[in-house]
Amino acid sequence: MSLLRQFLQLPVCELPRARDLNTSLPAQLSQMFTEFRSALQASAAAGDEVCVEAWRQERLIQESGEKIADAVQNYLEGSLFRSSESLRDGLRLLRPSLEGLIARKQDLSDLYRVREVDSLAKADRKAIFHIPFDLRHKVSSQRYSISGWPSLYLGGSLMVCWEEMGRPAFHKLAAACFDAERSLNVLDFGFRPSVLADLHLAEYENEISFFTPQYMASYLACWPLLAACSIDAGHRGSPFIEEYIIPQQLLQWLRDEEFKIDGIRYFSMRVNQLARAPRLAINYVFPVRTCE
Q: Do β-strands 173-178 and 151-155 pair in parallel, antiparallel, or remain unpaired?
């Protein structure tokens, strides 16, 4: 077993992570980041080349993690402006690594969207697309969302769509399959560390070929950000979910920064992901670009 695979399978790298309700979210994140850096240092010292490359950015990983935790703390203290500024400072530090995680010119097909309807006979085909702007007041808070701004959410499988909806009755569901008309650029948060432990190996190269050493080093540098976007909601269904602070602000930053991406690919918190079929537990979010 390679050193990198051993590292990615360590409990300190495991994502998603349950919310520890006995401590504050900023404190939980800071503890997770500290444990991750210690494990990364040990793996680099053992000689793994990818971990060595990532550890060269140790100061950046530490500082960006501090900014992420500060962003959550500021938000919870009621200072949304300071929260946004803290996170943006951290994201600017991570920008070269985030660039390394952009899956460019993806020909996306066979993506699914499911909606619950009262009657299939009365279902409107347009209603299964993103919420229109004249109904933006119905945009609910999602893990990756911008308040009041419609986005198109798609799943890599009908199963993950059904699970994300909370397993509604089948006879109340309308489903559609989507293919992109052009190639798209997506920020790739689509794979859990334990899944990447297997996917980056040679036997998977014919299936997924972009897990290069450079990609893996970028993934490790961005692990604190990915972790902050992968904390299970402690109070799912509540009007405010503190675990969504970072992923929501990340999506807004990516849209504002002209990052030249179309959306984010991210792993489901509800469906366990397996290396042999990772697509079954992958979601996509594509923010609408114009109000027209």
A: unpaired
